Structures are given as C-alpha cells and as structure tokens.
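Input set for joint prediction.
Command: fold jointly, output tokens.
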Amino acid sequence: MPDFVRRVPDGDNRERLICPDCGHIAYENPKIVVGSVVVESGAVLMCRRAIEPRIGFWTLPAGYLELGETIEEGALREAWEEAQAEISLDGILGVFSVSRIGQVQIIFRARFAQGPVFAAGTESLEVGLFGWAEIPWQEIAFPSVRWALEAWRRAGAEPLGAPARNPSEDSRGTRRLPG
Amino acid sequence: MPDFVRRVPDGDNRERLICPDCGHIAYENPKIVVGSVVVESGAVLMCRRAIEPRIGFWTLPAGYLELGETIEEGALREAWEEAQAEISLDGILGVFSVSRIGQVQIIFRARFAQGPVFAAGTESLEVGLFGWAEIPWQEIAFPSVRWALEAWRRAGAEPLGAPARNPSEDSRGTRRLPG
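tokens >
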C-alpha cells in the first residue's frame, strides 16, 4: 500500500490524505458517540470500564454510532451491550464536542423499558445505579461523563429544554494542545 | 493496494473492512453534518446549491463537520463558506438521523452577527432570505431541510426546547431500502 500524501484536492480548501497512485481521498471525519443517562428513582446507571482507554473508571453506557444506525438505535444498542439494559429514550440531554479527539457526543436522558434490570456487558467490569451523592466522582472516566451528569442534575425530571453543550469554563475537550 | 476483506475482528461483533496484508481495520463511521437556520426579521437564509447532489435546489448553510472542529465552529464555517455570512448561534434546533446514507445532522438556530450581510459562496448559485410563504418548497434539496424549517416554525422566536428529531411520519432518511 503506497504512503498517502497530504495535499489539497481540486475544489477543496484543506489538506487531505490522498493515495498518490489512484487518487483516492481518505477523508478523516469526526466520530459520533451516542449514550444515555438512564434514570431510575433518582439514581443513574453507570458502568465501570473493562476496556481501554480508562479501564476501571466509571462511564455512562455510550459508544460509537455505527453506519446505518439512527442516533436512537445506537443509544439503545450501547445500553444493551455495556449494561445489558433495555431502555426507553426520553430526549436529548446534551450534545458535546470533544474536538481534540474528533468526537461529537449525543447523550440522551432515558429510563428502563421494563424496570431496573441490568448486568455487566463484555465491555464493563460492573454496572450499578448511583444516587447523586454516591456517584464515584473521583473515578469518572471522561470529562463529558461529568458534563452529562451535571446536565441531568440541572434538568431533573422536568421536560427537556435545549440540550446542554460544552461548559464554557471547561476546555478539556476542545482546547488546542501545544504542538 | 490489496483488496480489503470483510470479517469480524477479534473482540468485535460486526464485519469490518480489513487489509489482508497488514491487518489495518478501515472503520466506516457515520458523518456529522452541521448547519443553521439563520433568521432575520422572520425570514430564513437559504442557499441554492452549485454542486451535486441536488444542484440547483435550495438548502440551508450546512456541511460536513471537519476533524478538530466543534459543532459550533463547523456551523459558523459553513455559513461563511456557503453564504458569506457571519452568524451567531442561538441553540440546537434539531438533530436528525439520515441513517440510510450514514449521516447525523445537527442544526442550530442562528442570527446574523452584524446585520443581514450575505452573498453566494463557491458552493452556492445564489442565496436569499425567505419568509415562510416564500420558501421555494417545491425546490428543496433534502428532506432534512424541510424538517429543520418546520422545527424553526414550531419554535418561533421562543427559547429553544429539546431539539426536534426525525418526524415519525417521514421515514425517508432512515428506512431500509430493498436489497
């Protein structure tokens, strides 16, 4: 496989990876993460990660949207894969950019479809329901998990308003890194 | 370049494109489109497409999010590129899945940053402001343009609530096609 070269294709305005032999342009695009804050009696479903990155830390059931899925289908699949939970989606709680690593995260508020039945999926070491005060705040996997939990806290059980977006005081997901 | 083969990588649960020589996995992911309903005195900014697909039809200033951008940065860039407009974002008006072609569209409500100054960018034949009754409904480029316009109509100038999602009665973006 020949090394791709970086140049600006005709009619474009930024550098792309291009195969020097066949001219194929390998577009690199941001990825979409879909997930849920699944709420039961004021507590939230969280998963302790069995995989890198951040193995052993706590996250929400969430993961990459697959080709051919709607965002809703992806969120349901992730809740099943990571927490063996069947859920019903309520609405979009937050949309967060993590541009530093090329991600956009769309997080729903959800509930259990038929009562709080759950178990660790293959990507989780354990899963559990946590009231606000019991959330393992010192062992959260990613900043966006905290942003989503705080958005849930602000929204409570009320009808959802416009989704939360990146908190202005926290640039961890979007700041340019040196170099 | 060897032909990629389709198989399920170790630890995964679906087929991916894999290079038989080096084992590189070419993940195919949905793409993110960001755009805006830019409102001025009750009228909305629309662009007539100078490029395929749907050349000559009307759309909103919108396009693919680039790697390294936040959704907000992408929406501002697209308004500039397609309509030479400097805009301020208000909030997220709609999040639409077009899973049939692997897209998620995040559409903001916006206004002009410094008055209604705009012009056709290189991807537009013409741009204009349209009141609801003047929108060229018979020449709309994509179903999601209509969904976004209808979400704007419902929201009016009020504070935004939870974003609109795919209308349940319109499956054009998400239905499985025969074959």
